[in-house]
Amino acid sequence: MTAGGWIALGIAVFGSLCYAAGSILQAVGARRSTSAVTTLGHPLYLVGIGLDMTAWLGSMVALRQLAVYLVESVLAGSLALTAFAAWAFLGSPLRKRDVAAIGVTIGALAGLAMSAGQQHVVAASFTLRLSFIGALIVVLGLGFAATRIGSPGLIATIGGLSVGAAALGGRALHLPDEQMRTVGSAAMAILGEPLTYVLLLFAANGMVMYANALQSGEVGRVTAIHWTAEVIAPSVIALTLLGDTFRPGWWPVALAAAVITVGCAVVLASAPATATLDETAALPAGAEPHALPAPPLPVLPGAPGHPVTALVPLQAWRLAIPIEARWPALQPPLVRGYGTVVWWGPSWAPLPIWVPPDRTLVPRDRPKLADRPQRIWPARVGPQLPESRRPARHREIIIPGRDRDAA
């Protein structure tokens, strides 16, 4: 491997570190927020997104010197760093198999780095560009069909293929050195290349598919399928079509190391540390991370002999909210962070009453008007004159010309 290759490998390792740090910061930011809106605006969450973007850009730079199988395997090794960082900083438990997978991943990545050979530059011809555009259309169509079917494994597979296709686009994107000397010419060369837009669309589709799969599937399985599809299929295509090579006699080592790295990623995807981080990101707006566990309920009388699974809040919120309001932008707030103040009493002397914030995940139905306590105002009475305190006396009527005794 040349000096430029070692520099590119360092950039790929730096991208893996950025992915791990970004996952930790996003998890901490999500735990310190009460809704999706506040999570997206949390400083730690924004820093985590910035680290993810930095890692992705670093992988695109590394692909100019390294093979796709090496860069993707290094990025898959970020799960080992994420699990270790979650254990060190967030107190997440690590199983014995997780510790073993972390150590094996480091050794497998070292074997991959030693087996990488000199990469050949493949010119981006018209046929290659047209093939990438056709593949993009096919993958977008498959992604739309997979979301209609609703299979988390299929959606995660298409998401992994999309991210891997973005890596293939970065491997095939070679710009002339004379156009990269100045900022203006480099910007014009990048914006004028069709593979740039294909690469961005593949990456965006991969992120959307992965997030969609996390909403309905188990975190460990979805992540394992996603990384497997992202590493294996693009590596095979790059070895056969884009000029990726091994060192002479090192292809068994590279093949075994790549398979071991993917297997360790599958093990670490189900680790308690990484699963906790992804479940935090997959919660609906306003959900609290500690509300996920729900033990099975006992068998109901008269029901079949199968235990009834409790309605987990993560699933119950979908049943309580209409289908047209499930999007985060239209979803009603599930958590009121500061409570509300209701003014109670007559209009001339109202009293403030503080209502505590609602911490439930399922929004309660608003009671009907007849069931609500009604505010009863006193009747408005106009001014009245006070009654006389002197007792009423009978007054004699005197008629002129008539004797009083005779009357």
Write a structural description.
The structure is a single chain. The protein is mainly alpha-helical. The protein has 14 helices and two strands. A two-stranded antiparallel ribbon has the order 1-2. Strand 1 and strand 2 (351-355) form a beta hairpin. Helix 4 packs parallel to helix 12 (251-269). The longest helix has 29 residues, at 3-31. The protein is elongated, with a radius of gyration of 35 Å. The protein starts with a helix and ends in a 52-residue tail after the last strand. The relative contact order is 0.11. Residues 282-337 and 359-364 have low confidence and may be disordered.
Tally of helical segments = 14
Distance between the termini: 144 Å
Global shape: elongated
- SSE order, one letter for each helix or strand: HHHHHHHHHHHHHHEE
Give the mean pLDDT.
Answer: 71
Low-confidence stretches: 282-337, 359-364
Structural class: mainly alpha
Proportion of residues in extended strands:
under 5%
List the strand order in the largest sheet: 1-2
Largest sheet: 2 strands, antiparallel
Keyword list:
mainly alpha, 14 helices
Quick overview of this protein structure:
With 407 residues, the protein is mainly alpha-helical. It is built from 14 helices and 2 strands. It is elongated, with a radius of gyration of 35 Å.
Indicate the topology.
Elements: H1 3-31, H2 36-40, H3 43-62, H4 68-76, H5 78-89, H6 96-115, H7 126-149, H8 152-172, H9 183-191, H10 194-216, H11 219-241, H12 251-269, H13 272-282, H14 313-320, E1 340-344, E2 351-355
Antiparallel strand pairs: 1-2
